[in-house]
Amino acid sequence: MNQITITGNLGKDPVLKFTKDNKAICNFSLAVGQRHRVNGEWVDGLTMWFQVTFFGGSAEKVVDRFVKGNTVTITGRLAQSQFTTDGGEVRTSLDIIGTEIEKVERVSKEPTEDALATLPQGEDAPF
To answer: In total, how many domains does the chain have?
Structure first.
């Protein structure tokens, strides 16, 4: 079974193109960062980049709903492709053919005004 689920940030706005027979194709890059702890502190590690492709109606929805910087979780399958650099080097990349995409909302560490309003006030407050 070839299936991947991965969370990362869109590296650029999705680009929508159409085939000769008018089928939608959407492409964008996805940055997946690795973090680890060093002496109790979080340290950013390497960033892996994936090229992601969606087809058909999904491609059109992606372009309408997502932009550069959005954090998303993508489910799909891995595909391998080769390309030649301007310098003539042949390179291989791992691509994702997407079947599902979901926006990940970041949780703020700061309390909202609504949350602060529900906290007990005065001398009886537990803190």
So the answer is: 1
